[in-house]
Design brief:
Blueprint (H helix, E strand, L loop, with lengths): L1 H17 L7 E6 L3 H12 L5 E7 L43 H19 L6 H5 L2 E3 L13 H11 L6 E5 L4 H14 L5 H11 E5 L6 H9 L4 E2 L26 H9 L2 H6 L25 H6 L64 H16 L7 H15 L12 E4 L4 E5 L3 E9 L6 E8 L9 E3 L5 E5 L9 E10 L6 E11 L3
């Protein structure tokens, strides 16, 4: 009974936060069977409470494709099977397991822990709902958009429906299934009177969230034919990808170690058991010479002598391996940063600067040298260190650990839960240059933990300078709008609250001030 009362209290406290807020973002996952896609999907499902999941779709890429089962040979110049001196294709399949079902397996694991997750957050979707969203997309060949598939048909129907809100479509692998959905729409409507309206609707509705262009279908079909579709690539945020531990920031490094991963991830129930770490004895496809990550006790040179194409230096057994697609969905979360509202806002996934060639930390194999790969990773980390965007990685990792703990904890009081954060009044404010505005925050914690708070400026607004925040650690604060602010510019302010539970959890509320003309 006590558990039920606590959950009810948690819900009542949360209602005031979500009233008048946009509905949960509608999102589709398309993923190929890369091991970091596997890991990203585990994290993603732990945040399914925050999202409206519309599709979980198997995709191909330049790194994974099934073949048609008829012995048809396939080859695209420059792919990884033509690197490292391999020359293994044309071939009838590439790095695709027989009866591949990694999405099914992770949803099955979710089903096992769902009763516990539901205790800690009643908004988790039923496993049956997630299972109903699984489809196979255009997986036969890399970049092939020649025919409709169950996956492309689902995406097509979702693009054309009339539900409110934008539709976010991720591409963790190639974009051929997405491209096929769009091509099917084009084929159906291009020479009809509805075509212009359909194009305009899709331009307003669809947002692509890619991990690069892994099969060239964005460059060859989507961009030329659908140039108005928003395409968000993120930079400046946490490095969730392969090799994140190489020259990691001082505050991030402990969260990537074997000991941290074992305590907080690998040993945490059914989902933790499926999560890939270095030297875990697993392999996505038996005999895959590019997947040596499950082996332990061998040097880079020894692995090469065993026939493996070593494209990343070996790391400590049990340590972080990679979740390279996280940046595509981490800004969709309901943590109060409102990052899904615009790519420029930024959040736990980084920030989109509006271009289509932003830094993509989920990179693919491009060099035969482990040393060169390490150098590339170091350059990525160096670029991130010089970016003014805040480091959200520690908060994101703590939150991930907490949710995995929920998955193995059947009693509400035996786990920590995030604080409830509110700012009184509207979250979008108009103010003139020289105005002084007062902001009132409030916080509460269902676990009874102590909470520390602070106000700070997230420098993503169009006003280029810093503002003065009075009493930044108090619940009530005042902000003086600078006299040099120009009408139309924006200032982003964040009210942040962190509890002292284990792990400590952080939530936010963003307030956006738009400068108006002086009366």
């Amino acid at each position: 009974m006590k558990n039920k009362l606590l959950v009810l209290l948690y819900l009542l406290m949360s209602i005031s936060v979500i009233v008048n807020a946009q509905e949960k973002p509608r999102i589709i996952i398309t993923a190929d069977p890369e091991l970091d896609d596997n890991n990203s999907l585990i994290r993603f499902l732990l945040y399914s409470s925050d999202l409206n999941i519309e599709g979980l779709i198997y995709a191909s890429s330049g790194f994974h494709w099934k073949g048609d089962g008829k012995g048809t040979k396939w080859f695209v110049p420059g792919r990884e099977y033509a690197r490292f001196g391999l020359n293994m294709c044309p071939c009838d399949s590439w790095r695709w397991a027989k009866d591949e079902r990694f999405i099914h397996d992770i949803v099955d694991a979710y089903e096992k822990v769902y009763p516990n997750l539901k205790i800690h957050n009643p908004n988790y979707p039923a496993p049956s709902l997630l299972k109903s969203k699984i489809r196979f997309g255009n997986i036969e060949f890399d970049g092939d958009i020649s025919k409709d598939t169950p996956g492309s048909n689902l995406i097509k129907s979702l693009i054309l429906d009339n539900k409110p809100g934008q539709l976010f479509i991720t591409a963790w692998g190639g974009q051929s299934t997405i491209a096929r959905a769009l091509k099917s729409i084009q084929n159906q409507y291009e020479y009809t009177t509805e075509w212009e309206a359909i194009k305009n609707k899709i331009a307003r509705k669809v947002v692509l969230l890619p991990s690069g262009d892994q099969d060239d279908t964005y460059a060859t079909y989507i961009k030329p034919n659908w140039p108005e579709i928003e395409y968000r690539q993120f930079s400046g945020g946490p490095n969730y990808g392969y090799g994140a531990q190489l020259r990691a920031k001082e505050e991030d490094a402990p969260l990537l170690t074997a000991s941290w991963m074992k305590e907080n991830v690998s040993d945490r129930g059914a989902l933790g058991a499926l999560y890939r770490v270095w030297g875990d004895g697993k392999q996505m496809v038996k005999g895959d010479i590019l997947d040596y990550f499950g082996l332990s006790g061998y040097s880079n040179e020894e692995l090469k002598k065993m026939g493996y194409a070593v494209w990343m230096p070996v790391q400590t057994k049990g340590s972080w391996l990679g979740e390279g697609d996280n940046h595509t969905f981490m800004n969709m979360l309901g943590n109060g940063l409102r990052a899904y509202e615009s790519g420029s806002y930024g959040g736990w996934g980084g920030r989109s600067t509006g271009g289509r060639d932003g830094l993509n930390i989920s990179f693919s194999v491009s060099d035969t040298s482990a040393a060169a790969m390490a150098n590339t990773l170091s350059n990525v980390n160096a670029q991130q260190r010089t970016n003014a965007f805040p480091n959200f990685f520690p908060n994101a990792q703590a939150d991930f650990a907490a949710r995995l703990k929920w998955s193995v904890t059947p009693k509400f009081t035996d786990a920590n839960h995030e604080p409830i954060v509110k700012v009184e009044g509207p979250l979008n404010i108009m103010a003139a240059a020289g105005d002084k505005i007062r902001l009132n925050g409030s916080v509460s914690d269902v676990d009874g933990n102590k909470i520390s708070t602070k106000w700070w400026q997230l420098e993503v607004g169009s006003y280029p300078n810093r503002v003065t925040i009075t009493k930044p650690e108090a619940l009530q604060t005042e902000i003086q709008i600078p006299k040099d602010a120009v009408a139309g510019q924006t200032i982003h302010l964040v009210f942040e609250a962190t509890d002292n539970g284990s792990p400590a959890l952080t939530r936010y509320q963003r307030v956006i001030v738009t400068i108006r003309k002086n009366r």
